[in-house]
């Protein structure tokens, strides 16, 4: 849907540049130059970073993660250093069988005693030369945590698409079969080749369609949305409610008899409640009802067909999860459940190398959107605002003063959800207003 | 604009019924029956309520405020009682020169000692028989508090319209003359005949137009919208910014030289930052930067031409204030100032008798909206939700379960403002979704 | 009680220095030099500041408010200037009959058009030469707003004491006579000679004693303290509860029959719920249920006999209000009412000239305390923390790093109240920990 | 330390009763009667509950979790039912080799289609007959998640004590050896025999002592504690700070040279930042920086030697974790780190069968305390208040009205921490005030 619109073109271009850079470096020094998946052992945990080595004669330059390196190479031995205000790190390694292995000594500014760690690095694959692939994927297992410890179900390349399905939040599939315990079980994770921590994964939802004729919801209101008086008024509600999904007419209606909602219908607007990458270094598995900078159970009703979701990569391969489809959802997901249903999903992944991303982003044909997630609406709003500020700085080079003027005159806020541990606020800017600002 | 749409018709009908009721009652017993402006002295403060007396032979029934009365009338003496779980009140009075004067004794449930107060009541005017009037009003003074102690500038009737102007938030008028100290100085208050505490005033904004070619704003961001990192980033901004208003093209642009915003424009969308009634019994004057259930400085960017704002009447005559026009405003009013400008305003008032209203309401051609105001976004959201719940109960007779389903599937939230002591959240429902629900 | 403790000595010293400075300046140039009550008219509102003029030959230096002035004097004409990053101001005046009157032209950095205002200045009285006075004051009227528009009931000097009484929050005095409508009616305001905006008033509570044998409270819980489940559980409570105050034994007990609280007693700990100065320039009267940087209805149960409360002066004479005595109060004032009672009060005022104060402060024999007030506990906590930071900077010259270490290791927080529009958080530091830090 | 005080006696008594009941039941019908560890498979996850069966002839009564059962037994086959407003459950099983195995069919009120699950049950051990044991435990591994999937390190009985050590939050032990990656690594988990979901574990900290002479902290302030101005002021701090711990003098002092804190000392007050039980059914492992109703990283500085912590059991064996010792901590843990150090710990566990517990509780010699944990201070305060309400209902049988009066007059609040995802508020009541209330 958004294929060909400007945001995606930028990624494709960036990926192409990255790819060219990789090839160029490789040409100069086949032995050590190029991109590596660097893995440092820290008390039994593995810290991954992309190590990009450029060799000019015996001089080493390049980057590790977001830091610059400088050093020397002699035969199969390499030495390089990073320096920051906090600490300096000395890396030494030997290349054997195309694997670098060695150690790093970190000397902190305020720390009297240096720390020593071991590391290895394996070559990241060269960019794929062939055309993008559309994968048909039938899920067999579903996962209840976002975690790097879950084995990937499929390895794909930037540019590839995956056509698959998701079960509903309760674990039931399109054939009304319970496949797994509820709590937003996920399809995936999908391993994206060459993705490394510090990159951004762009996931374009080409297709997001209903694949059954009913959804499940309830008639409760989240405590967070109720003042004391409303809590007393609502004290006796809270039962499950089934909704009928009429895919032909494009509407949903509650499957109730009697009462005032006999002819109440709402338009279908299928969305993904969950889209996430595996969280980063040494983080505990995150339950699929939770969310964070890596995405997760954001329940943001703008994540619909035709949008692209941008998430920060924190693990090699990114490890993309999708699930928790909603046939439609009001702002806030006030019932705790939206119209929970199984879903047919097709998405395309693209990779932006080395770009800081404070909050999840969504781009629709009309809007730039950032999602702020936090324990309170104020925190969530601040993060959404901060995330949009970062976007305007990165892509439009606006000054703080200019950012304030654009946001003050043009930002739109919506309350994404108040149903989970994190609440979510969306900050939105119309792309047509930003178009005249020279990038 | 919304003239003739359904909401307004309801009020007109209600007012007509009320009028008929009043006349009918008057016919039966010209001496005491009818509607009165009841005024009770409570330690030097006056508590006003509407007293509606119905006489059947020597028996008294009717209402005082929202309570039922029952009693007897003998010659020019009346006695009646109200009873609630909390207290009983015994009222006695004598009619002299068409004024009731007497006393009331209140016996509280938990209070050993009854309290005695004096009261008087003056007849409320009979509904006007003639056609609605359009008043041309040129303001000479402007007020910096919402208060019943400010002398009304004009007395109007339900159904009447007023065409007037407002100065900008800084006190400057359409001719660039500073008329008053800044802080949202108001035009008004307008006294609406027969309006009494417990009623609802419906203010339809027929016309809301710019009357000058510039607005003033700034390039700060409200502390409430910034996390620590953003606060540090924004630490040096905060200057005034002038915007050009192009009324022909319908756009505004910042009047800056250099930088990235040379060709940045936003659509004009004139709105009223303030619309308020005087607060109620014994309340201190409220500064015009503040807000509450009575309205006030809500800075809600949906209060535009063509909408009707509903506010609870807390003082005889309602005492309507308008001011703080914005040429346009992003959600949240993040700069603290929107595009502040003077404005041409025309509004029509209508009265709904005796209707509880927990939060300000706005009706547009497409949406029902409630505004929640509170010290935090959570509180504001709860109040907006509670207010919408009340609307769905009152006008659609929905049960708690049905309300939960309608809100969960269909509510839209927006963050009105975070610039003032109270923040505001708007809850919105599309009228087309509610249309099939039988009223 | 705290007489003679260190904090007070500092003020006395500061006042003495200020007094000496004043006299010294006066000796050099009797005509214009010295301290003035400067009053600038801004669109009908009066902005007061202290103008301190030092004359050296024909050269003018000194301060107006917190800004430096420089200029010249020629005969009875004076000209001086202030400059900041935001604006420059040119002041001109003529001395006639010991009154300065003239104008000021303000040119803002971003403002094309200068503004012109008129001003006058009257000489502030010289410090009193005689001994401090103890005033016996019997209140006749009580006030329901904190406001500079309320006429002072007594003029006192720094160093003076006042012995008086307060009615309870409901307006009832020690003889069970209702004196005024409830809502925390106040005794005062007391005008403190020479106090000017920018100063700090130190109010030491020498005596705070019960003067009747009962208090009134209730059995509700504030909505803010209840989650949904608790709100449902508490839905039927909310009646008035009388407490017996046993002044001999020093305890209070609920006056209930039956139930589990027959022998429940709590220690008496009389406190002032309200202590306030009049709010500043062009501010609306503030209801006595509200609070802000000027103090007000803080309901902080550490404001007991023997403490000193520091408040920022915002009006000439400071205009001190006291009221809302509580025989005892739990943290948070969860019932909305504490043990509300009338009170005998004696306090001493002292003045600290020209000291910024972000939040109200309380000093007890053992603790420094700041009170943060805001719409949410987070905001209140931030303000209390910020206020304590300011105190540590001002009086202990600590660096940001040192402040962080002192607070992180030693701060104590308490929740003062959640019963009013502003909630309050107290930040406390033990004075014994700070004693070794060289001032 | 608190041995012999009243709370503990109650548990001992309760445990004794439970034990007696168990034995009695066992005597009647050795085959099926008694307490079982019931384990139901729900889509690959195991739900554990205590199943207590009482046999009277062929009639079955008793409980499963908090629900009553009724049914029949025939030979080695048992059938029983639970009924609630939400659903009914029919259980069938066969006893083979002292293991029950069978199925359960759940029919939900609103659910057209019953669900069927399998289950097994193993006999819970009979109460231990011998004396309590003091275990000496030297930890070899440390864990960075609270989870039922971590293998227990030791099996103990109610009444037993464990003497052990904890590493500091950064993973360093008493000999300055880094043992594990930082992030509050835990000692444990300890399996408590017979503990089952629905019980409460009481952990008395008999001994909590420093075992090295230094702690690590920093000089940052948590963003949550700073308003915008303070954030700007603090923008350049954030380095590690070492503290010296003087165990003889009982004080700590920052190990800094220069500046104002040369002679700044604070009293040592060793506390446990983390104490937790494994979270319940199908929950993801919880990182050791997080907290919840099960306890966790609460950073509550009242959890010191001599207190008893009560936590709700959610897994068979309770699975107790301890760690994150602080030599001392200010309220709020404003630096993010307190004075982090390794610790010597001795605790005793006791079990209260079948008692609902909404929030963690702490009992000291002087106070009852509940800890509320949530995303915002308001939520945390509400939960602490709600938790205290539950305590007063359960142990003092107070009515809602009485609870309101006790809390309003006597509750004390403290802000435990604002350093983690959940913030914590402590609600406290003095035991001496509650003593006269008949239990």
What structural category arises from helix and sheet content of chain A? mainly beta
Count of runs of 4 or more consecutive helical residues of chain A? 5
**Chain oligomer state:** homotetramer
Question: Spans of chain A with pLDDT under 50 lasting ≥5 residues?
Answer: 1-29
CATH topology of the largest domain in chain A: Jelly Rolls
- Strand line-up in the sheet with most strands of chain A: 9-12-25-14-23-26-27-29-28
By CATH, the architecture of the largest domain in chain A is named Sandwich
- Rg of chain A, rounded, reads 24 Å
| Highest CATH level, the class of the largest domain in chain A | Mainly Beta
Alpha-carbon distance between the two ends of chain A = 24 Å
Q: What general outline of chain A do the C-alpha atoms trace?
A: globular
Total number of domains of chain A:
4
Number of distinct beta strands of chain A: 29
The most extensive contact between chains is:
A-B, 72 and 72 residues
Describe this structure in words.
Chain A is mostly beta strands. Chain A has four domains: 1-30; 34-123, Porin (Beta Barrel); 134-354, Jelly Rolls (Sandwich), CATH 2.60.120; 358-439, Endonuclease I-creI (Roll), CATH 3.10.28. Chain A is built from five helices and 29 strands. Chain A has helices at residues 6-28, 228-233, 377-396, 400-410, 431-434; strands at residues 34-42, 45-56, 59-64, 67-74, 77-83, 87-96, 99-108, 115-123, 134-136, 145-146, 154-156, 161-166, 186-192, 200-210, 214-218, 240-246, 251-254, 266-267, 271-277, 286-287, 291-292, 295-297, 308-312, 320-326, 343-352, 361-363, 367-374, 412-417, 423-430. In chain A, the strands form five sheets. Chain A has a nine-stranded mixed β-sheet. An eight-stranded antiparallel barrel of chain A has the order 1-2-3-4-5-6-7-8. The two termini of chain A are 24 Å apart. The relative contact order of chain A is 0.13. Chains in contact: A-B, A-C, A-D, B-C, B-D, C-D. Chains A and B meet through helix 2, helix 3, helix 4 and strand 28 of A and helix 2, helix 3, helix 4 and strand 28 of B.
């Amino acid at each position: 849907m958004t294929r060909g619109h400007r945001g995606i073109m930028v990624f494709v271009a960036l990926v192409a540049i990255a790819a060219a850079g990789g090839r160029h470096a490789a040409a100069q020094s086949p032995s050590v130059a190029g991109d590596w998946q660097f893995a440092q052992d820290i008390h039994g945990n593995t810290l991954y970073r992309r190590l990009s080595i450029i060799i000019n004669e015996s001089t080493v330059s390049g980057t590790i993660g977001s830091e610059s390196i400088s050093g020397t190479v002699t035969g199969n031995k390499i030495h390089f250093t990073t320096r920051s205000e906090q600490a300096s790190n000395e890396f030494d390694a030997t290349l054997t069988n195309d694997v670098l292995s060695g150690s790093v000594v970190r000397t902190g500014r305020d720390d009297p005693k240096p720390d020593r760690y071991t590391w290895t690095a394996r070559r990241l694959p060269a960019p794929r030369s062939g055309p993008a692939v559309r994968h048909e994927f039938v899920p067999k297992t579903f996962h209840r945590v976002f975690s790097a410890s879950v084995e990937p179900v499929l390895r794909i390349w930037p540019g590839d698409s995956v056509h698959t399905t998701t079960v509903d939040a309760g674990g039931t599939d399109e054939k009304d079969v319970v496949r797994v315990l509820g709590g937003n079980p996920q399809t995936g994770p999908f391993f994206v080749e060459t993705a490394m921590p510090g990159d951004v994964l762009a996931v374009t939802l080409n297709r997001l369609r209903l694949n059954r004729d009913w959804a499940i919801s309830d008639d409760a209101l989240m405590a967070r949305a109720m003042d004391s008086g409303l809590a007393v008024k609502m004290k006796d509600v809270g039962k499950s409610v089934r909704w009928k999904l009429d895919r032909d007419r494009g509407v949903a209606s509650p499957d109730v008899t009697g009462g005032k909602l006999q002819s109440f219908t709402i338009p279908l607007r299928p969305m993904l409640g969950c889209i996430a990458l595996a969280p980063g270094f040494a983080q505990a598995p995150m339950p699929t009802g939770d969310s964070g900078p890596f995405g997760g159970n954001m329940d943001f009703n703008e994540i619909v067909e035709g949008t692209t979701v941008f998430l920060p990569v924190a693990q090699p391969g990114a490890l993309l999860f999708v699930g928790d489809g909603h046939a439609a959802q009001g702002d806030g997901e006030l019932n705790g459940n939206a119209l929970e249903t199984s879903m047919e999903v097709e998405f395309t992944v693209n990779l932006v190398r080395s770009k800081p991303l404070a909050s999840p982003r969504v781009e629709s044909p009309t809007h730039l959107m950032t999602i702020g997630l936090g324990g309170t609406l104020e925190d969530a709003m601040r993060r959404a605002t901060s995330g949009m500020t970062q976007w305007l700085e990165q892509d439009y080079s606006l000054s703080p003063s200019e950012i304030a003027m654009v946001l003050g005159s043009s930002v739109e806020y919506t309350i994404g959800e108040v149903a989970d541990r994190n609440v979510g606020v969306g900050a939105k800017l119309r792309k047509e207003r930003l178009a005249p600002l020279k990038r």
